[in-house]
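Encode chain A's predicted structure.
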Amino acid sequence: MASKNLTAGKKRGFGLYLDAAGIVLAVAGAVATVLCSTKSADYALAGLPLYLVLIVVAIVLTVAGALAQAKDGLNPIFANACSAVAVFALVFTGVKVIGARVILASGLFSWNASNQIGWGVFNSTIVATVLLVVAALVLVVAAFLPAFKDAEPTD
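Encoded structure for chain A:
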């Protein structure tokens, strides 16, 4: 049984490129999240496995939503629902990561400003949060653009 190529006869749309950029940013956010958790054993994120699972789920849903747009006759609600859940997962993860560092930030800004390890953890946490939120914003824009378009006939 031959498998059918979903993208046969389709041109890539700008939404597909934005989906790819969102996935790259999400992977970078996952790496930054791991780094901010492993810089020091004292500042490890308790929910790191959950955060990584949520990022992977967001990536899988982004791919599923983009491929769903390639299938003819498919209701676009599925692709939009995949994008919405992926955006929620990324923003939720970013908020939880920065929320886990609130006590650290208050200590750094009030009475322990010379804690270099703490500043390193805090800075990498900011990077992780920004990457995850920007990935979510890119996916929001990508949801409004077609991932695939019908190819024009070449006569």
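Residues 12-145 form one domain.
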